[in-house]
Design goal:
This protein has 3 domains: 311 residues, Bira Bifunctional Protein, Domain 2 (BirA Bifunctional Protein, domain 2); 61 residues, Herpes Virus-1 (2-Layer Sandwich), CATH 3.30.40.230; 104 residues, Rossmann fold. It is 33% helix and 26% strand. The chain contains 18 helices and 26 strands. The chain has a 9-stranded mixed sheet with strand order 3-10-11-19-16-15-14-12-13. Strands 23-22-24-25-26 form a 5-stranded mixed sheet, sandwiched between helices. α3 crosses α13. The radius of gyration is 25 Å and the shape is globular. The relative contact order is 0.10. The structure holds adenosine monophosphate (AMP).
Length: 504
């Protein structure tokens, strides 16, 4: 295998080799923009989502979770505006027929930021800058807008036109009234959903960054529009310092600022306390997942980039080798969706306030992708370690695929039997452990380091005499000797603290 060059390429190589992520339909040559999780990847993804749920949903009293359908009738997307507005600019090579997103192509060739410009202007820039097909040098077509909804038809006669949802949010708006009534909800309240979304992206790229099928974790927080600054949790997070990249700083060519969320809301840099509340929590969450703070920032979207439904957007971006990429979109969706669905369906979607007034709630939406954060975590936790002789993942214990590997030092003299006993005891106590007796102990350490397992338990000859084992720390390779009976307590401490520091 040729030596992978960039850090990203090394991460991609690791993902394929160690059962983390595979290209979909690989034996048939794959399909662009679709990837599948392998046995190790699925564990990391599951834990990542579970941690998100714990931190953003379960910790709140008034956020309800639902699970909606992936396919919805096109009437929904007519009302939501996706049929009309959910478009990207497309240009095609007249010779080799390759298709490109015109704005990306221009940005890459000229460094000019052109997102949101109309197709005629993009065509003009393509011509002025003499941009040709990056694949074959051929002439590019005029730019036209391309709708990203993945369309389908439902029923044997192709009766009903439908699309795969491009965001999980729409099911939440459609079920708003049912949730409101069945949960006897009171404003402010939120509805969360985790699930797949689909976008027929023109040019999927950068591994997990631009996919056609991906997972989202979204919350729609419904608030009284006059009370967007009444957020109980805000007091708890107002002193969290975040990195903010305002639209003004972007225009002036300045850098991000470090600012406390409370101050940013006070100064009007963040539109309201609810938005500030979620942004602070997001920043803390990503820090807890091993992303360094210098690689995190909130970028205020420029007016021309802001989606059709939004009154203000802040993207949480994470830095990669190829630049900062949006991993969470925070949008102030106002009453747009409920109002439109009410108009198009004829259903009343207003609520009655305790004062007896009828209002359409406003919506603050933190929208997380899973695959981009997943890649960001692998990328930032990837340690290139010449001294150790292998590269490894410094994954935080709460999302590592296993908490520990359990190894007999050698596979003879009763050590495997004893090791299996320990393994079974830990597994039955609910810990994710993995057993391995193949190859040298060094190779086995390397194998679990590579997939980010924080601890290794080795059963050796001394174990047979005194029921002690060694526990090795992935991060420092330090080892301590402990009693088998102490293991459960040690594991629990590592899980609770999300760190091995106070053990070693
Ligand atoms: P958006 O609605 O475009 O703000 O998307 C919300 C989040 O979904 C983004 O921050 C990404 O994490 C994720 N996302 C959106 N589009 C894609 C895509 N094509 N591939 C992977 N993740 C995506």
């Amino acid at each position: 295998m040729p030596e992978a060059r960039s850090k990203t390429e090394k991460v991609v190589e690791l993902c394929k080799r160690r059962g983390i992520i595979f290209p979909a339909a690989e034996i048939y040559g794959g399909i662009a923009g679709f990837f599948e999780y392998g046995p190790v990847g699925v564990r990391i993804k599951r834990k990542l989502i579970e941690d998100w749920r714990k931190f953003f949903v379960e910790s709140e009293e008034n956020i309800y979770e639902i699970e909606g359908c992936l396919i919805l009738p096109d009437k929904v997307f007519e009302a939501s505006g996706h049929l009309e507005h959910f478009v990207d600019p497309l240009t095609q090579c007249k010779s080799c027929k390759a298709m490109f997103r015109a704005d990306n192509l221009i940005e890459e060739s000229t460094g000019k930021f052109v997102e949101g410009l109309p197709p005629e202007e993009l065509t003009k820039i393509l011509r002025e800058e003499r941009i040709s097909c990056p694949k074959c040098g051929g002439e590019l077509s005029d730019v036209k807008m391309f709708n990203l909804l993945l369309k389908t038809e439902v029923g044997p006669a192709g009766g009903e036109k439908a699309s795969l949802r491009p965001e999980t949010a729409q099911n939440i708006f459609l079920n708003f009234k049912r949730i409101y009534q069945s949960m006897r909800a009171k404003l402010p309240f939120g509805v969360a959903q985790v699930g797949k979304s689909f976008r027929n992206e023109i040019s999927p790229r950068q591994f997990l960054v631009r996919l056609r099928e991906f997972t989202q974790c979204e919350i729609e927080m419904f608030v009284d529009p006059r009370k967007v600054n009444e957020c109980e949790g805000f007091e708890r997070v107002k002193d969290v310092s975040i990195r903010l990249y305002t639209a003004e700083a972007q225009r002036k060519g300045e850098r991000e600022m470090e600012i406390k969320v409370g101050e940013a809301v006070e100064k009007g840099l963040i539109p309201n306390k609810w938005m500030g509340y979620f942004m602070a929590k997001e920043f803390l969450w990503f820090l807890s997942l091993g992303i360094p703070r210098e690689a995190l920032r909130f970028r205020q979207m420029l007016p021309e980039e802001t989606p059709h439904y939004s009154k203000g957007n802040f993207d949480l971006e994470i830095e990669f080798e190829f630049g900062f990429k949006e991993c969470v979109g925070n949008a102030y969706r106002s009453d747009y969706d409920l109002r439109r669905h009410s108009q198009f369906s004829g259903e009343e979607l207003a609520v009655v306030t305790p004062e007896g007034e009828k209002i359409i709630p406003h919506v603050i939406e933190p929208s997380f992708g899973v695959e981009r954060p997943f890649l960001a975590i692998l990328y930032h936790c990837f340690v290139e370690d010449k001294e150790r002789g292998w590269n490894w993942l410094a994954l935080p214990p709460k999302i590592s695929p296993f908490i520990a590997g359990v190894f007999p030092l050698v596979s003879k003299d009763g050590l495997p039997e004893k090791a299996k006993e320990v393994y079974k005891m830990l597994k039955e106590s609910g810990f994710d452990v993995v057993y391995d007796e193949k190859g040298s102990i060094g190779k086995r350490y390397a194998r679990i380091d590579e997939i980010g397992v924080p601890l290794a338990i080795t059963i050796d000859y001394q174990t047979l005499q005194d029921d002690t084992v060694t526990v090795r720390d992935r991060d420092t390779t330090k080892q301590v000797r402990v009693k088998i009976l102490e293991l459960k307590d040690i594991f629990q401490r590592v899980v609770d603290k999300n760190s091995t520091k106070d053990i070693f």
